[in-house]
Amino acid sequence: MRRRRFLTGALTAGAAGAGAAAIAGSYPRPALAQSRIEWRMVTAWPKGLPGLGSSAERLAERIGQLSAGRLTVKVFAGGELVSPLQGLAAVSQGMAEMAHDFALYHIGQLPAAGFFSAVPFGLTPAEFNGWINFGGGQELWDELYDSVGAKPFLAGNTGVQMGGWFLDEVNDVADLKGRRFSIPGYGGDALKKLGVETVTLSSGELFGRLQDRSIDGAEWIGPYNDLSLGLYKITKLYYWPGFQEPGTGLECVVDKAKFAALPDDLRQIVAAACQAENDLTSAEYSGRSPGALATLVNEHGVKLKKFSRDLLMAFGSAASDVVGEVLEGGDDITRRIVTSYLRHRKSALVWSRITDGGYLAARDLGFRFPDGSTS
Amino acid sequence: MRRRRFLTGALTAGAAGAGAAAIAGSYPRPALAQSRIEWRMVTAWPKGLPGLGSSAERLAERIGQLSAGRLTVKVFAGGELVSPLQGLAAVSQGMAEMAHDFALYHIGQLPAAGFFSAVPFGLTPAEFNGWINFGGGQELWDELYDSVGAKPFLAGNTGVQMGGWFLDEVNDVADLKGRRFSIPGYGGDALKKLGVETVTLSSGELFGRLQDRSIDGAEWIGPYNDLSLGLYKITKLYYWPGFQEPGTGLECVVDKAKFAALPDDLRQIVAAACQAENDLTSAEYSGRSPGALATLVNEHGVKLKKFSRDLLMAFGSAASDVVGEVLEGGDDITRRIVTSYLRHRKSALVWSRITDGGYLAARDLGFRFPDGSTS
């Protein structure tokens, strides 16, 4: 089964420039010396990217710490060994032992892969963690990636994202027709149904493409990352809510055979480090986004714009159509993944409505609180 | 500083019955044999309690696995070594190396301790994780518990809780006067301001006290736990939202000196195991609550009742008063904790409103989805 889906040709670094393929070929194989194991982790992120990039670095470092150096992980930025969106392929082909990216980057090869990162109008981060760990999600994810020789772990979550940046206002569906927008995954497929021309750009390309107006807008993540990319310098129109990615899971993919060959405690260490990082990265986005948003609004004059009800209804119907098509057009594993996800969603909707939703609405009723808010 | 706050007399098991003090006295001290360390973890939970109890067991087991048995942890149910609510005191006095409970149980000794579990109308679980990890919360928590010789870790979250069970309907503030309700922490202090007589009962006492009507109602956690306690057999009135505990953190408290004496990798293992468990326990409550709620409603005829707007406004004002009093009446560390928490809350309010709140409202607009919901 292994390697049946990926072509070696697709693995060479694209935007990252020349030499990456040669580097990949000459990089030494992991060596066993004094029971020390060295692994390579390829990532989809530019060097030093806050949140996503620092999460990958922290995860690698933690594995080394927990194992007292018996298993060390060297991290490569997107493009250093392979192109940013090809992490799973690299693991599948033995060019790296680990990859750190979004599962939605693999929809082209594995159509249901995106259900393990984000689905428009799908599960919230808490609901998603519930499905993965206690709703059958992990077992289905394992089965899906088993076909390419990989073992996946959840390793972070961005939280509910922002709807994105637009060069010009969008008030209704007619305003979307013919616009060019950078958005990956099923969310991009949904916008296509509403007449948007979509592309999937890496974070490093967004600023330039917005600046020269070769795209009309882009969604990336949220204030913490978008601030560092400087997108506010080009447009002030920042839309919410981010229906297209309501809490996007990060994955750490591991070479399945090499993972199975580890001693038991090192397998547990890899799993625990990913689970700890899932918690910590989510906390980082939750902890740092409010301050970054305040900086965007108060220092850079960014305007928060809420998508209109008509637009949200249209997004909802388009997302529904996309999910339905993945379900109906898919093979057996795809259908089982989508069915399990939808079953969890339907049940979780009621619970989240009276807890998370009910609580947030109550907190906003308008009484004064000692933080000075009229919350 | 150590031991200055706790009296030995308070540590003997209360409701758990006779013999616990004697057991505590005769239990062998941790032994070092072949570099193996054995620690004791006291908990606030009855043996086998789903969610909270199984989380403590899982955490202890994970520490053993990650360390390949170099550090093993033996778990004691509430009352086996010390009474359920005295975990921090037990660690402070060297009777156990770890305790697993809610920080709000320690408000009597450390008035700001509850800010490290739940504050009525306070932070959501995601906001709370953000404050602890990236908003200065952990450093303040470390400082607070340093005064009793302990090091705290976040080790789980129940998610937004339910408002609780009432024997008779409550529609406005007048209905609350003279009612007896089991509720701990600042939430209990808030209800007192509205004329409620409050008590803090352990989970094992709730059924009997509701059954003989010596209390008129109780909040515990949510469907997953409340189902196992069988509270639906006594009353069908189940209120939401749970303003009193909008996502309650579980803590794992460790003897600070013994933690500092561990080798570096074992310290990292304890910390990572707690962080992984913080993620997994939250996922367990998120994953299992929807099904438990459906069982309560569909099989046991439980009625979901929303607190009226008037009640929620009254709860909000009372909670505000309680938080203000803790802030103004507290010593230096109390004031710094409450101030930091409130600063984070004010900033996070805006972010959660447009992401979590905005997304949940959009998902509920009424379009059809392939899961059959008109979401």
Automatic annotation (TrEMBL), chains A, B:
Gene Ontology MF annotations: metal ion binding
GO BP of this protein: transmembrane transport
GO cellular component, one term: tripartite ATP-independent periplasmic transporter complex
Keywords, sorted A to Z: Metal-binding, Signal
Residues binding substrate: Q161, E219, E245
PANTHER family: EXTRACYTOPLASMIC SOLUTE RECEPTOR PROTEIN (PTHR33376:SF5), PTHR33376
Protein name in UniProt: TRAP-type mannitol/chloroaromatic compound transport system substrate-binding protein
Organism (species): Dongia mobilis
